[in-house]
Amino acid sequence: MITVALLILLLPLLSFAIQIFFRKFIESKNGEWISIGIQLTTLGLAFYLFAVMIGHYDPHFRIEENVTWFNLGNFSLEMGILIDNISVIMLLVVALISSLVHIYSTEYMKGDIRFSRYYGFLGIFTFSMNGIVLANNFFMIYVFWELVGLSSYLLIGHWWEKNSAADASKKAFITNRVGDIGMFMGLMIIMTVLGTLNYQGVYTGIASGEWEGGIGTLFGGANPHTLLTWAGILLFMGAVGKSAQFPLHIWLPDAMEGPTPVSALIHAATMVAAGVYLTVRIFPILTPDAMATVAFIGGVTAFYAATIAITQNDIKKVLAYSTVSQLGYMIMALGTGAYVAGFFHLITHAMFKAGLFLASGSVIHAMHHALHDIKDHDTDAQDMRNMGGLKSKMPYTYLIFIVASLSISGIPFFSGFLSKDAILAGSWAYASTAHEGWLASMHMAWILPFFGFGAAVITAFYMFRLIFMTFFGESKRPDIFEKMHESPKAMTVPLMILAALSLFFFYTIPSINPFSTHGWFSHVIENPGTVVNFGSTFNLEHFEHANHEAHMPAMILSLIVATLGIGFATLVYLLKKVSAESLASKLGVLYKGSFNKWYMDEFYINGIIRPFLKGCDAVALFDMEYYDHYLINGAGRNTKKVSSGVGVADDLIVDGAVNFSGYIFQWLGWSLKFIQTGRIQNYLIFALIGVVAVFLLNAF
Amino acid sequence: MNLSQIVQDLGFLTPEILLTGLILLAIIYDLFLTKETSIRTGYLAIAGMAIVLFSLFAQNVEASQGLFNQMVAYDGYARYFKIIITLATILVMWMSFQNDELKNRTIGEYYQLMLVLVFGMFFLVSATNMLSIYLSLEIVSIMSYLLAGYLKENLRSNESAIKYVVFGGVSSGIMLYGISLIYGLTGSLNIYEIQASLAANAAISPALLMLAFVLVFVGFGYKIAAVPFHFWTPDVYEGAPATITAFLSVAPKAAGFAVLLRFLNTTLTLSGDPNNIALESLSNLDWPTLLAGVSAITMTVGNVVALQQTNIKRMLAYSSIAHAGYMLMGVVVMHHNGVSAILYYAGIYTLMNLGAFFVAIYIKNAFNTETISDYTGLGYKAPMIGIAMAVFMFSLTGLPPTGGFVAKFYLFRGLVGVGDTFIWLAIVGLINGVVSLYYYLRVLYFMYFKEMNFPDVYHRAPLQFNILIVIIIIPLLFGWMIGDPLSTWTASATSFFVP
Q1: Closest partner CB to B167 (pick from A69, A683, A694)
Q2: ipTM here
Q3: Any chain B CB within 8 A of the CB of A690?
Q4: What percent of chain A lies above the pLDDT cut of 90?
Q5: DSSP alpha helices (H): ranges in B308-422?
Q6: Which of A224, A392, A454, B426 has the most neighbouring CB atoms within 10 Å?
């Protein structure tokens, strides 16, 4: 098993090496199929692991293998592989979507100037992502965390000749760094208090009370909660960066500058889900305060990003904000204690969102070719205002869009319904069980279900807005429309697979009840509860009970809001009973705010970066005008006078000594060189003198 | 000693027997080859050495043995050095295919002689009797003379061989005299019996004992090129075929250290058991201090004279003298850590020194120069060559993150770990490190900083050469990182045969 896992981990790295080092060969001989072959092998192995896992059908199935990486005194770092239900499911998802994207890209990226490099980077990304999934400790996950960051940076900037792409890749990298610093601080706290970073070691360490003695109580008036809360929140900061949570979400929409298959693989399905995965792994050590923080960040993100998605016109931007919003859902679920729902949504979302992105790629691809045919290089191929009526031209793409959109909007019989409903029920249960502290006062906790259901309405609305603008109505640009045609098989077949996986029964077998999550998934994934057993803690039983009660009303309500959203989109964009323009002007400030992403980028530039630079300038000015001029230079002028006297002595004595020692060595080498006369007779004499000298020196 | 005992002992000599078979096969095969096809002997030799390497790995050395009345030992220590020697031989043979000096000539003998040299070294590293030590030392020496003079029409090559023969002959004669003194003192040639006799008889005059030891040490000192027995090195290294120079600078040197260390730690210690963690020298013979002095002088002379060299081969020759000085630091500590540090250093040194020589040979072939100042701009013209040279120079200097740093670190750790006695030697070693920085980095200065311009057309080295260099670089850069496998291996290779 461990060998299989290691193969899954390392094969993509091999693909990377081949693509990077044999570029010429690859590009001349269809070498992308080497990578695809490797990726499909990985997929096969992942299926094997999955089969083994299902064969056990045990929520506590786990295999772990640990080796010591290095020891420094009594500090040691370990590396290891952890195979449990979560990692096996994640591996399968990563391998599957990566394989589909590999195949899809053969057409989408055809003729690209850096074709083999693109495949190489896909390989190193898959390697790093598998590393995150297979890691058994927080340090190793951090290492691979940075590696996915790197591969994301490389792929966003794939077309770096475009300034916007280069900027976006830098923005992604730097924004992630902010989160990662927090994550690293969290790691250091854990390491200092518990002396281990192994997941299981950390859980048992906290459960057995190690946190309550010693360093764990140094802060917060001997209350061990304080430091543990901080550790949890700091670790979670890594997830905030990687999973594009408010307020570090700003990089993800810009990351759409990368090739669309990359957006599907990295910025929708897998890498951004790594943050959720990390939260899953730290879930047991979160204190109630930390959980509340997680939940509120997730809730705010879900709602906030959804409001932006309504007004965007770029097809990929809509999907990007939708991704941010859905990631917010997952995070909120984990924060509210709905562990299974959060992880479930990660999986279902990966499928339908990858489907949506690849389908949008199919549209963009067709647009590109059409624009190319009519020699139009100014029109934006991603702008939905240039589309319309594509239903007849691209029937498969259209169908897939419909299926995936129904899934994300939470319509029964699709996977999204099950997971989203579970999340909403979880937030409801959380709010109804909040009886103490600030969450209970003024019913603060009820904000979360409000955000959840609100975002659900908006999601249904903007997804169908996208579909109606793109596929229905009259074409806005008949000249382009004429040249449009369906994408080739290599692109549509992966799409169909992903669309099929948006159906509910894949996740509920052996049950086929479309309204219940019961099935293999909810059997093998089990809410681990919390290991924090001191102070106030998350009560799993209590929560599950409330969750059960909230299930029915939440489902009914979520169905209503989904229908509302779709219905309203139909009114505005399909039947045109309500004019979108007049709505926009009526809403005024709200519309402008949403369209401009609530001015978040501007806030960062004007509120943080500019003032910071101004501050730097001011300090620099002070430094030069006052500090340098009076203090340094003044002192300097005076010192100079003194030192010119000293200098004379210095030249002679100190420099003399330094140069002299240099000279000594040079001279020594120069003079010893002459011993090497080239005459063997001399050599022998010298050697014999040496023997005698050694003997005499040592014997007496 | 009866026949059945001999037959039984032969069972422990699989690699040596395979090697003997290989030598005979190479000689016979060569008879059927013409001048043009004689290179095939080389291919045969490489393939054969690979089999020998495999048989070495297959040896189980957990139970060490003394073979043929304790003429040679079968133990983990000897096997480690045999593996290093075999690897170095394979690498050098590989490089020999690309050495222009050896092109267009009948080349079969070259590989045959190298194989015999390896045969000698195999016995040298496992010899446990003054007689077998001397005999195998002679095999190694004579083969080295022949190889140094292999370029028959080249005067420099002839000259170097003659100098080598004369110097080697005198050293070996002196050593023989030392051995006879030891025999006179103890009545035995077996190193274990010598030890027992010396340890039991504390009344032997220290001066006489010192004389015998110093004379024997001449033979070892000449093999490892320790000052003042190093005079042959620069001349021989410069004249010999470059690949042979590379080979002589690593393999016989490693073998010399192997036999020296075994001899010292067995024969000249109180306990006579080199497997002990800490050892004590014989009460009436303070050889660690003597060797500490030799070590300090060797590294200083090597480094200081290397400063003045303009020819890359001569520079590397002197630098290899300096490295012998560093390795002697591990001998004087008389501690388990010192022994494993030497083993480690021998492994890393083999790689980095071969690498540096190979790059120099390649530059000689491609750009026809051995003068360091002619390397100007090479780092840009031939990026692969430049990077490789940079790695080797950093490693030879002992800068992180290369294996050279780790190897040096272990040596110094061993030296400082045993107390204050040899702190002065560590300081001398550190100062020498600084001195060596100057001439190693001077090569890179010329390659990268003298002139900075990117040419339109890059020079590309042939694939075969690039692969060879990468094979050498990878363990140097990454070998020590994950778990440091070499150090675990060397720690386990410090098991000596003791009767």
Answers
A1: A683
A2: 0.75
A3: yes
A4: 15
A5: 312-332, 336-367, 378-381, 383-397, 403-417
A6: A224
